[in-house]
Amino acid sequence: MSEALDVFTRIAVSLGAMFFLAGTVGLLRFPDTLSRLHALTKADNLGLGLIVLGLLPQVAWPFGALKLVLVWVLVLAASAASSQLVARKVRGGKDRS
Amino acid sequence: MREFYLLAGVFILLTVAVGLTRVLLGPRGADRMMAAQLLGSGGIAAMLLTAAGLESAAALDVALTFALLAAVAAVAFTKSSGRAARTEED
Amino acid sequence: MNAVYGLFAGLSALLLVVAGFAVVTRRHFAAVVGFTAFGLLLSLAWVALAAPDVALTEAAVGGGVTGVLLLSASVQMRAKMEVLPSWGVRFIAAVLAAIVTAGLMLVVLMLPDEAPTLAPAAKESLAFTGMGNPATAVLMAYRALDTMLEKVVLLLALVAVWSLGRDHFWGGRPDFDFSTQTSGPLLLLARVLVPVGVLVGIYLFWVGADEPGGAFAGGALIAAMGLLAFFAGVARPPLVGSGWLRWAVVAGIAVFLIVGFGGFWGAGDFLAYPDGLAKPVIVVIEVAMTLSIALTLVLLVVGPPGRRP
Known about the structure:
The structure holds three protein chains of three kinds.
Chain A: H1 2-29, H2 33-55, H3 63-92
Chain B: H1 2-19, H2 21-25, H3 29-53, H4 57-89
Helix pairs in contact in B: 1-3, 3-4
Chain C: H1 2-24, H2 28-48, H3 52-80, H4 87-110, H5 119-124, H6 126-129, H7 134-142, H8 144-162, H9 184-207, H10 215-232, H11 243-266, H12 278-302
């Protein structure tokens, strides 16, 4: 059972790492700011989400797992709100700094 | 298994650090901010993996602190780049 | 253990690159981003070095209040000061920085191979303090005087910041740069995150007795949540002249002093804790300290009063 869980952890963490790689490549290569924002949110939400999912079977139950999920939820909330702020700034066309 | 966690953590850290070049490239304040945000969530992921790799329960608390502060930093970055843009236009 | 070395190698290389980036870049904003990233990496390095206490404080202070403080400074510099310092000043600054760096490198190279340590002695009396975390025992029992003086320094810093305000603004609210406009997502974020953050801050302070944490990390996290509330406009910086604020700011030192002088008749010396009561006394001091630290850090970041009372 624990070996199966280890395999699951490896797969989920590797997938998460791939999303971070993809997010970085997107941030560097995509042509405009809004596309880059799209790439960033994939790394934030899915990359971190998969890593949290992968680590869940490995941490102390229940508080370790609770903390892990809380970390992900907090990053999701922050990422969602700040993406809105960034996008508004870009659409507003005011930002040139 | 512990080696795997640590290597995955280093991999993510190096990856998002390359993304930091966006801070230099810009061109908008928003682009610079996004690179910082990516580094923040990548750093949190690396911290979680390090916590697992070194079996340090306290590192989870550090990650939790970062998750909360990443939001504060993101909001501060957005607001300050807005301020700067406005003062430049004045 | 190869992976651990990999982690150290990766972290060291990144720390150097990001530090260089923060120093060399000409944009204030990029420098602040670099500095914040440096703090995050440093915190990871402390975790890798098995020093989670230091990592937590670095994360709580470096990631939150320091970042916002630097950003607000950079915004004000951009608005008010376009002139770069002259070449002479920059040259002298570079020379001074180089001397300090060379001195530090020399000290590191001269360190004895087996570092002198008081750790076994500190662990021996741990049970007497009622603390499970040696770092907290050192801060609150063995070196309590240092910790108290540290709070005095924090208070003096606040007095220095307040003294920068203009006379006719005295007693008014700080004119915090960022609290100008708000929006839906920001309001939502503040309403969700601030309560959770304050809760985590209290948890960090409470868990500090036995695990990494403590008053400073908890206070710094609560301070950052206060700043987020100001950003979103759900709260305003307090009137500098209000009485409750002054009391809350000195609460930590006041409780420390009361316990300190009480030690003369209770236990025979300044800051000596009575037998068997060390833990409850320490908890009372830490509650007051967490409150004072959180408030003082917020007030340091929002700056001197800038509006009429």
